[in-house]
Each structure stands twice: as structure tokens, then as C-alpha cells.
Amino acid sequence: MLNRYPLWKYLLILIVCVVGVIYALPNLYPQDPAVQISTTNGSLDSQQLDRVTQALADDDIQVKSAAMTGTNTALIRLDDAEQQLPAREVVDKALDDKYTVALNLADSTPSWLTSLSAAPMKLGLDLRGGVHFLLEVDMDAAVKQRLEATASAIRADLRDQRIRYRSTDVDDNALHLEFANSEDRDAARDQISQTFREFQLEDREEGRRAFLDMTLTEQSIKDIQDYAVQQNLTTIRNRVNELGVSEPLVQRQGPSRIVVELPGVQDTAEAKRIVGATANLEFRLEARPDTPEAETETFPFRNDPQRSATLSRDVIITGDRVSSASQGFDQNGRPQVNINLDGTGGSLMNQATRTNIGRNMAVLYIDHSTDTRTVTKDGRQVQERIPTTSRSIISLATVQSALSNRFRITGLDSPTEASELALLLRSGSLAAPIYFVQERTIGPSLGAQNIERGIFSVLVGGLLVVAFMLIRYKAFGVIANAALAVNLVLLIAAMSMLGATLTLPGIAGIVLTLGMAVDANVLIYERIREELRRKTPAQQAIHAGYGRAFTSIVDANLTTLLVAVVLFSIGTGPIKGFAVTLSLGILTSMFTGIMVSRALVNLSIGGKPVKKLWI
């Protein structure tokens, strides 16, 4: 019988539609702006939460709800995103430094939907509001730092082998070693060539002095730079996770840049300070009085620049070896950072301290920054960035016993400084300095305005399509519009299930999908009209319309899908968002335009004697 589906097809369409409705429903429950409180060194209970809630009420900040979410964590939901920053300031005043207060967005999806793993679509930066950073890695500094670390390792190796040298200097992409005679240089060359194979070695003579020039190969430089970007990417991700930002975006862009997007973040200064912090630590021994001047460096104290100390150039360990760090207080109530080292770091620290008991060890704080100045080049004024590095001593303490993988850093000015230093050490140090190329902030009110305008555009586009189909195809237009509604639900459900991020370009893709979704119906209905003009019976005309238009529908949608795939593969963030929405929309529109609309036609007039079609 014409225009009848078997039962399993009706059941399949029904199941798909029900699943689509379930997984699209969470988008009707927007996330609540919230303030999250947590602690690792203190305790948090309901009484303290009530005290914080009362402090917010006294400051005229509307609290939607407040509840304990764990043993030492609590979540306070607010009515207005604009009140998040003032709320955090009030909570900070009501609690002491043992508590961490972070801004967040809390899900409001009902529990029965959450139990089915249903969640709303993620909103991009342009819809939720937040900050966008474009960072660039200083590639020259990455190579220089690697050369300095190599020079330190070579000095230690030559001392172990009792090979005498005079000095080591870093210049561009090369390391220059000076020796008293060619015999010492040849012995050093044999030793170095076995360990440091990424260098090209070349002998050089200047009078009676003998030099060994170690130059990095082009491939080695590329490897170092690529490692620097990847390590910085990992470190920044860890720092963003420490900030407690929900659904952040941290990804590489090009050979040397990193994009960071923090939706929902309003405190730009705090985010910039933590994400872009380039601080690192070095642990060095104080130089002995008889140490050659070429093997020492003098640094001022951080909290007292008038004082200084002379340290050995050899580094025991750096902040890279820190596995965990936490803020604390010593017996006198002064801030400190408790540090745990990884296995290699603990071994190196033990080797260095067990033979130097009674000698002073310094914690050197290294901070990289970039100064910008305007210069004239080729008749144009351009911004030139000048990287600078400052080194200062945090603490200088006597080694009283051999240290292992646990110790503490004192000499810090405030609990805030200790907390930030612990955070940076936990998340890892940067492999190379970074600087901000671009910074963009979108407020929550602007994000809400973008959402309103996006929804308005979808409604206007949808209503125009609905009106056109009703006027043009009458009763069959109703069926096409019903299929269009199902298509929109399935598209939203698919994006929610895949965890796709909705942006303004994504909303544009939804509007385009609504316009394209009825293309299949237009082809089918025009084919049915053509068959009716040939005096074909109604049921046969419907059958022919759906059957013969199928090839044209597949061809048209397949070419558009290929374009969407190309856009996704070569495009950046906004273009990819548009491509994802367009691709999903093509798949759902083919399903609804062909199967759902025909199922509705079959259920309404399929197999029945029809003399006239309202089309």
C-alpha cells in the first residue's frame, strides 16, 4: 500500500523525537551566577555559611540559595550576574585568608534530567561574558633559558670529571666555553659530545686561549620552541583550573601563540595576573669566599633591596620540580609556602645539601616582564616589546641537615603573596616568558544582550519561514512547519549531547539551518505539484514526490556538508562554531525533512482515498 510506513519506522522516529526533547530541555534552565567557597586549611560549616549569607543580605545582595556542596565547600547562588564581584568582596571580608572564594556559574538543571546525563549547551564568551587573552611565547627567551640550564649542567659535569675551564658564556643560539689550553678543551669536547648531542661543536683559538663553541642545530631550536609552547599551554591550563573557571578555553594558535578564554570571569585583573604570571624559583647555594668570580652572581633581597648576597651560578633545582605547594604559617604566625618535590627534585636537593651542611642556601625569585615602547621604523610608529627579567632573593637560610623532597619557604611579605606563589608552583612554571598581545573583555550584561538578540533572530527567521510555508503549501505547509519544529529541537539536543559551544556565529548557523531545513520539503512539494498537473492520482503523486526528490535533496545537502567540514578544518573558534551548527543542522534537517514529514503525511492521509490535495 502506498504511503505507509512499517511500525518500526514510526517507533524509531518517535524514540528519536522523545530523546531529542529530553536532551533539549536543560537549555530551558539557565545557569545561575554563583560564588563558590572552599578551604583546605580550615573548616567550613553551615553556621559560617549562614554568617556569610547574612553579610550579603546586609549589603543588599540578593541570594537565590546557599548550600554546602561538600565537607569544606559551599555554593551561594545569586539572582544577578552583576552582583558576583560585590558578593565576592563581601565574602572575602567575612572570612579569613584560609578560604578561597571564586566566581562560578552553577547548573540549575533538574535532578531527573541530570540523572540522564542531560546538560545545557555551553555558551561561548560572546554570550556568557568573560575575558579573552591572546598570549605570545618569547621564543628567543626559551632558547636562552635552555642554554643557561645546559651551561649549568656542563659546569657540574666538567667538575666531576676534573676538567678545568675558565668561563661559560651564552650568546644568541650558542654556548661558548673557555679553557686554559687545548688539552683541557679536547677532553671537555669528548665528554660533552657524548651527552649533549643536540649541539654542533667547533674549536676556536684566540691567542693562547682555547674555546669550544656549542651551537644548537635548527631542528634542536624548533624542538625547544615547540616544547616551550606545549609546556606553557599545560601550565596555563593548570592555572586556569586553579582559578575555578567553568568551561574555559585554552588552545594553541599558530607556532607561538596561545588563546585563553575565561567565560563568566569578571575580575580581569586577577585573571591576567594569575594567567600571565611568569614567576619561577631557583634554589642555589651561597658562593664560598674562594669561588671564582666567573662562577658567581650577586642578587638583592626582594624585601630589602639594600641587602644582597653572592650565589653560585649552579642551580640545584627550579620550580619545575615542585609536585605540590600549599600556603601555611610558621610558629610565629608569618606566611610560608610548604613544598613537596618530585622524585628527581628530592634526589637533587638531597645530594646538594648533605655535603653542604652549615652553608647557606638561597631561594631566588625570577620574574619576567615586558616593557613596551613606541619606535619609528620605515616611517611608521610601531610598538616594540622589550623583555626584562628581574631576580631577587626571597630567603637565605642555613642548611642544618640534609633536605629531601619536603621543606618550606619563608621570608614572604603577606599571606596573599604566599597563596599566589603556592598557586604558581602547583600549576607549574612557564618554560618561557609570555606577554599579552590582545585582551578583550565582554561584560555579563552584553552577553545577555547578545543572547536576547540571538533568540530574537531565530524567532524572526523561523516565523518568516513558517508564514511562507503556510501561504505557499497550505495543509502541507503545516506538516513542513511541524517537521521544522522537530528539527530545531533535535539540533539543540545534538549540540547539548556533544558538548558543543554555542556562540553568535553558531546562532547564525541555526538561523541558516531554519531557512535551509524546508528546502527538502520545497523540492518534495513542487514535485508533488508537478505530478498532480500530469493528472497523477493523489497517493501516487505523494509517493513520487518523496521518492524522486530524494536524490536532489541528498546532493544539495551533501555539498553544503562538505563546505561545513572544510570550514571546521581550517577555521578558528567562531568559524568552527558556525561549521558545527551548520553540519548538525544539515543532518537533522535531512532526517526531519524526509522521514518526519513523510511520517506525518502517512499518518494523516496515507492509504486513504484522497480526491484533492491542499498543496
From TrEMBL:
Protein translocase subunit SecDF P1 domain segment(s): 229-286
Pfam families: Sec_GG (PF07549), SecD-TM1 (PF13721), SecD_1st (PF21760), SecD_SecF_C (PF02355), SecDF_P1_head (PF22599)
Ranges where the SecDF P1 head subdomain domain occurs: 297-432
Protein location: Cell membrane
Domain SecD export protein N-terminal TM: 2-103
Ranges annotated as spanning the membrane: 7-25, 454-471, 478-498, 504-525, 546-571, 577-601
GO cellular component: plasma membrane
Membrane topology, from the record: Multi-pass membrane protein
Family membership noted in the UniProt record: Belongs to the SecD/SecF family. SecD subfamily.
Protein name in the entry: Protein translocase subunit SecD
Organism from which the protein derives: Salinicola socius
